[in-house]
Design brief:
Blueprint lengths: L1 E6 L6 H9 L7 E6 L6 H11 L3 E5 L5 H11 L4 E4 L5 E2 L3 H11 L5 E9 L5 E5 L6 H10 L11 E3 H6 L11 H9 L5 E12 L7 H22 L6 H9 L3 H25 L3 H14 L1 H26 L17
Parallel strand pairs: 1-2, 1-4, 2-3, 6-9
Antiparallel strand pairs: 4-8, 5-9, 6-7, 6-8
Helix pairs in contact: 8-10, 10-11, 10-12, 11-12
InterPro entries: Glyco_trans_2-like (IPR001173), Glycosyltransf_2 (IPR050834), Nucleotide-diphossugar_trans (IPR029044)
Keywords: Transferase
Pfam families: Glycos_transf_2
Length: about 325
């Protein structure tokens, strides 16, 4: 088993991520930390850990994006299975053992995923996430209809030779590179997900921009169109697809921009909630519901109501001392 862990300025979390791998119940692995030109203490931390565990190997790359970085790991890997984990996430102790045993039971499956527990920057547990087909019937239905197969990226384990056969990660899809690769792997065999939490997926960082959210929507839509085209025996080119999008009518572009911004605001609601910025979460949540009322309203209500309930519980436990129901640390104005 080869674990590919891309890193870029990951000093704040990478030690915990690596420790979660070296503590696995399945000990027969190599960990390839593929660094994308970090300028913080990431390199020093990895080198320190590699000196005491020869299963850890640091690969230093020029800054070129996540796909190019991960492709170096694919080429350098020594074992037939590749597991992915990001440098800010945490693997469950039996993650590798669970997936290897599943692969032994079902050798025709080319990619395995699993469930994930979202956590905040400081490790606070949030909600559980589960994506992807859990059995062959569900996988076959997705393939028959051309629907996009989604599996949580930091939970995937796939056959190295299959990934190389389909060309590895495509740098044009940075931001959705894992979903693009996953759907190309599905051309070679089943991709399934295990109904078990395999990673803790950290939600943190800066807000998602409108341009990034819009590009992700374009990429996901293209992947579905490509899946459908391949059912008919032909393929689609992504660059040609982008050119066609540029020629759309103004009204069509406006409609898609509104939908993209709704998706952006929902994702930022999740980030603000994880960072305990409840006021900001409420603001972006309202905008998400206004722009995407059908898809966003229930999810936003769930996130916000959980945040309010947690604050109320804090208020009860602490007797009301220093607890604000409307603002977290990140919401208070400076000065």
């Amino acid at each position: 088993m080869s674990i590919v862990m891309p890193s870029y300025n990951s000093a704040g979390f990478i030690r915990e991520a690596i420790d979660s791998i070296t503590a696995q119940t399945f000990p027969h692995f190599e960990l390839l930390v593929c660094d994308d030109g970090s300028t913080d203490d990431t390199i020093a931390i990895v080198e320190e850990l590699a000196r005491v565990d020869n299963r850890i190997r640091l690969i230093r790359n020029q800054h070129g994006g996540v796909s190019r970085n991960c492709n170096v790991g694919l080429r350098e890997a020594r074992f037939p299975w590749i597991a992915r984990l990001d440098a800010d996430d945490i693997a469950a102790p039996d993650r590798l053992e669970t997936q290897i045993k599943a692969a032994e039971r079902h050798p025709d499956v080319v990619c395995w995923g699993g469930g994930s527990r979202m956590i905040s920057r400081d490790g606070r547990k949030l909600r559980r996430a589960q994506l992807g087909p859990v059995d062959m019937a569900e996988f076959d239905e997705l393939r028959r209809t051309g629907k996009v197969i989604y599996i949580i990226g930091p939970t995937v384990m796939f056959k190295r030779d299959a990934a190389l056969r389909v060309g590895g990660y495509d740098p044009r899809f940075d931001g959705a590179e894992d979903i693009d690769l996953l759907n190309r792997l599905a051309d070679l065999g089943p991709t399934l997900t295990l109904p078990k939490i395999l990673t803790h997926y950290r939600i943190h960082g800066k807000s998602i921009t409108a341009s990034r959210s819009a590009r992700q929507r374009i990429m996901f839509a293209f992947i579905e169109e490509r899946n459908i085209a391949r059912l008919g025996g032909h393929d689609l080119d992504f660059d040609a697809h982008l050119a066609r999008l540029a020629a759309r009518s103004t009204l069509r572009r406006l409609h898609e921009d509104i939908a993209g911004r709704g998706s952006q605001y929902y994702k930022n609601t999740v980030i603000h909630f994880a960072e305990r910025r409840l006021l900001k979460a409420l603001g972006t949540g309202v905008l998400a519901v206004v722009l995407q009322p059908v898809s966003s309203s229930g999810r936003v209500y769930g996130w916000i109501s959980r945040g309010v309930r947690r604050r109320l519980n804090d208020l009860t436990r602490d007797g009301g001392r220093g607890i604000s129901l409307t603002a977290g640390e990140g919401d208070r104005p400076a000065g």
